[in-house]
Amino acid sequence: VTLIDFTLTENNGKNLLHWTTETEVNSNYFTIERSSNGTDYKAIGTVAASGFSNAAVNYTYIDANALPGINYYRLIMVDKDNTMEYSKIISISGKKIQSTSIVNTYLSAAKKQMELTVYATQNKKANLMLFDNNGRNIFTEPVLLKVGINTINKNTPALARGIYYIRLFAENEILVKNVLSGDW
Prior knowledge:
Helix content: under 10%
Number of strands: 16
Order of helices and strands: EEEEEEEEEEEEEEEE
Strand order of the largest sheet: 13-12-15-16-10-11-14
Shape: elongated
């Protein structure tokens, strides 16, 4: 794969990635990776490649869940023989969030685990609470949030599958997010 262009634009909180290949031989797919710090990347999607081409081919991917702050992106170009090559890294500054926000939540009944991604605009103490669908408090734990993206992993008691509510009480803020307990 010969990559000739890799660009990024923001539109209403969504990041649009666009890339163009000049030629492709035996190409299989592209993996799109994102990072909040430019070092630690996670795959957020894949796009099928054309396979073989001697003409320019355009591709797009929309990151509908862009992170607050700077988002870094790179492509992994994977051929049918599983050889791969990384693109250059591009970045864009997302919309500024003026408060704390819960970005992602995962709750596993099988693993008795919760993972929470929280964006904070300042260092602050908070209380993390988990409630069941009937409003019963499952647990409460203090957490320390640092400026930027915080990943919080907590063990939970045995949970039935269903809907739960995460509440984060921070200085002058109460954040609530519902989450479905599954078997991830």
